[in-house]
Amino acid sequence: MIRILGVHRGVAALLAALVFGAALVVSALPRMVESSLDAAARSVIGSAPPATASLGVQFTRRFDLTPLRTTAEVAEADTAWRALLPPALREVADPAPLFEITAPPMLVNEQTHRYLTLKWASGADRRVRYVEGGPPGPGSGTRLEVAVPAVAATEMSIKTGDTLRLGELTAKVTGLFEPARPADRFWAFEPELTYVIRSRVPLATEDDLTVTALTDGDSLAGAELPLVYRWIVTPEPDRITAGNAQDVLAATEEFGRRLGRQDLELVLSTGFDRLLKEYLDRLAVTRALITVFLTGLAVVCLGTTALAVLLLVRRVQGDLLLMRARGASLARVVRACGGAVVLAAVPAAVAGQVAAGFVPGAPTAAARLGPAALAAGTVAIACAAVALGQSATWRSPRRRAHGRLTGSAARRIVVEILVLVVAVASLHLLRTRGLGTGDAFLALAPVLLALAVALAVLRAGPAVIHLAFRVAARRSAAVPFLGLAAARAVPGAALPVLTLLPAVALAAYGMATAGGLEAAQRQTAWERTGAEIRVERAQGIPPETVEQIVHAPGVRAVVPAAVGTTVAEVGFEGRPATVVAVDLDAYRRLVAGSPLRLPELPERPARATGALVSHDLSAMRSFEIGWPARMTVTPAGTVDAMPGVRAGDGALIVLPAAPDHVNTLLIAGDAGAVRPLLPSGARMTTVAGALAEITGTPLTAALTAALRVAAVALAAYALAAVAIALTGGAARRAEDLGLLRALGLTRRQAGLITVLEAAPLLVLTAVAGLAAGLAMPALLGAGIDLSAYAGGRPGALAAGAALPVLPAALAGALAAGVSAVALAGAYLGGSRGHSG
């Protein structure tokens, strides 16, 4: 075995390099992705508002119920609810307790639009600093003591020492407080203690102001008031990973069921389960798509490795025949060659797995088993090739029945039909069910589709080459005739085609997907911002500031706008609406060349007096609005959306004229020149910032990186497969060229014959693989929906979407580059073969 490796050390080194590279990629890529998936889990929970990412157990006490009359009983209830947590949820929950008691808003001193909410929250006394007065003490009967946020006291005209009448209760203000540490997570759960809540009912002319005051917990719990008790369980983001997210979600649902079986009427209020479901949906798609490319990469790596193994077997065929002639058994010959492959492949697979261990991330099943399976497959191919080759050499050849298919040909047809049927079935299921269902069979659809196309090329390729040969036979030039005649007789073309075409197809698909994803992300960033730079200020932007920005160096254009909310006076209660006032012609010139598409203006004369409205208002002849000024709106066209504006469930009204009161600036230019000129309270967003926010999420970064790594690896192994296939026929080709040398064959002609021998099937395979890869986004349809990675833009990469030019060009360059490098190598190899 060692002697075989020593004699054929070049091929053995090539085999070891291929196994090492395949083991490294197959083991490192899942680890890298898994690390990013864990980071994504932490990011999803950590970046969400704490009140949304927590579990709130809520109980509403009516007048006729008497439980939970002290804060001690509330603390005991917190311990009881936490005991109901399933183990998976208990492991990720923060043990620190947080619970509160809240009374409904009550009218203050019978003043219209002025309300006070009483609250007690555990630990609030340690997290406030009194700027005036002191904390509230215990109350007596209907008299309570309260402390009011300092920021709200000024707005509500409340001073220390005031006595507030709250219906049948009276509340004495003992102090004014502010957060001791505003960054404390406690204030994310109790934000109403830091500001005045403003709200306005439809058709009202004045805001309702509500301030939340702290009071003594036992006094509030003992008052004859309808109270809301809330116990908060906060999951720790660092404890949630891609591996335990599904168990945590199931535990959250089980916790809700356990609460429903308690004596009290408890309600579990949380957005934690929704966050986990959204994350798990994206996680399933990410893992499934990575599985698609890992499967394709495994097929291509195994095919390329098989070509190297067959090359080694051909090189040692003479040695093995000599061993058989000297009396060695078939098993001994197989062990000799298989052992040599073991010595080359197993250490390389181990080295690849060890090198992958330096990539951060937990090892997955694929990372652990992939290199071992690859090494085992390589050894199995070598043993099978030697056994079949030796058996075919030593047994007498069978006759082929004239006009009938041999058993091997019939089996090949059956296998091809089976692959085609399975590919079509998987494609149909993928389009109808989606990739994120967790079905491993669906992840094989792209690979099976590529293999089906490869089988079609194997069937149609000889016919195409034969047609080219017949054309060349009618011409007087000998080189095309000899090259195409050699192409017709190339043996063993199946394995190179079955390796090269999936590699090119999946690499092209990966490039197209990554490019399409980037284009969709850019589109979403522009739609979120509405312009290269967007400046907003609720109080309005002074005219002098607008002038300064217009004339600032680096600013190319500025379009002022006004964006606000109002109530469209339609129906009985009106319709909430978002109003956008902007000069649409100037806006269209500002964003020319960007991906944005603005709504079309109506034709004159309606253009001068009419407005664009959403479809729910388009049937109205006219209606009134109160912002940006009291006016009558006459619908003259419809609008679905405006860039940078979120209308939500409300209506949308676009006034196509420059506003008098400006609170938004749409700018084209340098953000650095605009930022120093902004007044206080202004908020600036840019397309670059929005794009960084979309692409910076760990899941998106993991998917994009994995697509690019897989595409590069597939391209490298495609080139290696072609090189090995050409090398495998080098001896036969040198012999044929040697016979032609005596007839005067030149060096250039020898190279051209070699190129013509390899080019037809190689070009057909590359073109078919490129076409299959670029067609896959449309063929797979909505089965692979990546809109969540494009900022949640629906249909971002749906079937039928325009394929970006740059990714298609890169995929074409990949196929052309593989073909060109292979043909250049063939030309040089043929020339050297002739000269030798």
UniProtKB/TrEMBL annotation:
Major place of residence: membrane
Compartment annotation: Cell membrane
Positions of the ABC3 transporter permease C-terminal domain: 709-816
InterPro entries: ABC3_permease_C
Keywords in alphabetical order: Cell membrane, Membrane, Transmembrane, Transmembrane helix
Transmembrane segment boundaries: 288-313, 333-359, 365-388, 409-429, 441-469, 490-512, 709-731, 752-776, 796-829
Membrane topology value: Multi-pass membrane protein
The protein's name in its UniProt record: Membrane protein
